[in-house]
């Protein structure tokens, strides 16, 4: 859990700094910073996806995951959670537009910070061996990213640290149990579909090219390794 706690700390610190200097940054500079993050996120997602051994596996996981995500209304759930946090923890004498900005900051930062190979592999490594080096690297990256996010999207970004605490903390604590069921291929394809979701986040929330309900794709992170398991068990592999 040490790596996750460090990650939570850098996000909170970066968000506070971002909110503090946000008013001193011009709109053009904030827009450029977020666009830069979007370009990097898209490129990183693409780099992650191309390591797939069979593109049809993450495609199947993505489509089935989207069906489940829409059925379970995950996108709406994330938005409601953001609004609930805003209402409980922030002053209520604001306009509705501030609620929407809070939700955007919370949802965007949460999805960016929790999806990706470093979050998954780093948490497993921390849980199994106590080596949190990979999560420490992620913590530095997330800290700088939260400065840019918070300067543009506001205080909602700081609460994405809760998502990190729950998500990475759960993976770390359960890593010893689940690791025996995950083959190398399952981890690789799960990482590949995570890359696709990262690209969706870049196009939708960061570059604002097309609105995509990215939260609905989250079940793909569970469906994809399940597809690999079926192929390995009944068809001899990918």
Question: Could you walk me through the main structural features you see in this protein, from its secondary elements to its overall organization?
Answer:
With 238 residues, the protein is mainly α. The chain has one domain. The chain is 79% helix and 0% strand. It contains ten helices and no strands. Helix 5 (96-114) runs parallel beside helix 8. The protein starts with a helix and ends with a helix. The model has no long low-confidence stretch (mean pLDDT 83).
What attributes does this structure have?
0% strand, 79% helix, mainly alpha, 238 residues, 10 helices, globular
Our count of helices gives 10
SSE pattern, N- to C-terminal: HHHHHHHHHH
> What is the mean pLDDT?
83
Shape assignment: globular
Query: How would you describe the oligomerization state of the chains in this entry?
Result: single chain
How many domains would you count in the coordinates?
A: 1
What composes the largest sheet? none
- Residue windows where pLDDT falls under 50 for at least 5 positions: none
Number of strands: 0
Q: Alpha-carbon distance between the termini?
A: 34 Å
Q: Tell me what portion of residues adopts beta-strand conformation.
A: under 5%
What structural class do the secondary elements suggest? mainly alpha
Question: Could you tell me the radius of gyration in angstroms?
Answer: 18 Å
**Helix share of residues?**
over 70%
């Amino acid at each position: 859990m040490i790596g996750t706690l460090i990650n939570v700390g850098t996000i909170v610190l970066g968000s506070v700094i971002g909110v503090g200097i946000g008013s001193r940054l011009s709109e053009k500079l904030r827009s450029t910073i977020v666009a830069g993050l979007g370009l990097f996120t898209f490129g990183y997602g693409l780099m992650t996806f191309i390591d797939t051994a069979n593109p049809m596996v993450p495609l199947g996981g993505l489509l089935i995951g989207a069906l489940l995500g829409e059925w379970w209304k995950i996108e709406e759930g994330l938005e409601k959670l953001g609004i609930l946090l805003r209402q409980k923890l922030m002053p209520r004498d604001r306009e509705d537009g501030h609620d929407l900005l809070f939700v955007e900051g919370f949802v965007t930062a949460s999805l960016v910070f929790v999806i990706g190979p470093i979050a998954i592999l780093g948490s497993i490594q921390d849980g199994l061996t106590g080596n949190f080096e990979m999560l420490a690297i992620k913590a530095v990256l997330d800290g700088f990213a939260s400065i840019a996010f918070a300067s543009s999207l506001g205080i909602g970004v700081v609460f994405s640290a809760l998502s990190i605490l729950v998500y990475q903390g759960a993976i770390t604590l359960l890593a010893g149990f689940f690791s025996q069921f995950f083959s190398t291929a399952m981890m690789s394809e799960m990482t590949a579909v995570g890359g696709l979701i990262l690209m969706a986040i870049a196009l939708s929330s960061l570059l604002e090219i097309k609105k995509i309900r990215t939260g609905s794709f989250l079940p793909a992170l569970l469906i994809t390794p399940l597809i690999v398991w079926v192929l390995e068990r009944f068809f001899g592999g990918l």
